[in-house]
Amino acid sequence: MKAYKNRTIANGDRVRIHRNQHKGGFSVVAMTGQYKGLVVAHCDNACIDNVTFVVSRKGWERYIAEGVKNVHAFVEGTINLDYVVPQWNPRRGWFDGRCHRVSDPLRTWSRIVYEPALRPHFKARNRNISTAETVVLRSQYEVLGIGVM
């Protein structure tokens, strides 16, 4: 996670994360503290707990009407800076950042998708969702969740 404009974030802070359309990866916005409402970091991978999926209805309607992308969907929750996002190695399987073998996250986690051209909802396993225990955002905009409801 790269700090933005020397702004800081601590483990357990409330954040809102959205896809960064210009730079790639994700932007992290503080929801509390000194930098509330401001981008505090950019990242390729992140983990947040106690998650709520938020779609601004007016932002989505503007996207549909104008056909121009805008930031209107977020994953909101508590940042977990201690989590190491598993990475795939074609020869060895799934490994964490310390090269310890871990289970395949696609088998135990639900893939979460947001397709604004089709609907104003996040979906997992073919149903609309609004919350999750934990969500991992990975490079290439892959989003996985546990305890998805």
Description:
This protein has one domain (2-146). The protein has two helices and 13 strands, in the order βββββαβββαβββββ. 9% of the residues lie in helices and 44% in strands. The strands form two sheets. The protein has an eleven-stranded antiparallel sheet. A two-stranded antiparallel sheet has the order 7-8. It is mostly beta strands and 149 residues long. The longest helix is centred in the middle third of the chain and has 10 residues, at 57-66. It has helices at residues 57-66, 105-108; strands spanning 2-3, 14-19, 26-30, 39-43, 46-55, 73-79, 87-89, 93-95, 110-114, 122-124, 127-129, 131-138, 142-146.
**Shape estimate:** globular
Summed over residues and divided by their number, the pLDDT gives a mean of 86
Secondary structure: number of strands:
13
| Major sheet size, sense and barrel closure | 11 strands, antiparallel
Taking strands numbered 1, 2, ... along the chain, how are they ordered across the largest sheet? 1-4-3-2-6-5-12-13-9-10-11
Order of helices and strands: EEEEEHEEEHEEEEE
Computed CA radius of gyration, to the nearest angstrom? 16 Å
Identify the quaternary structure here.
single chain
Distance N terminus to C terminus?
Answer: 28 Å
> Residue share in helices?
under 10%
Which percent range describes the beta-strand content? Answer: 35-45%
What is the total domain count? Answer: 1
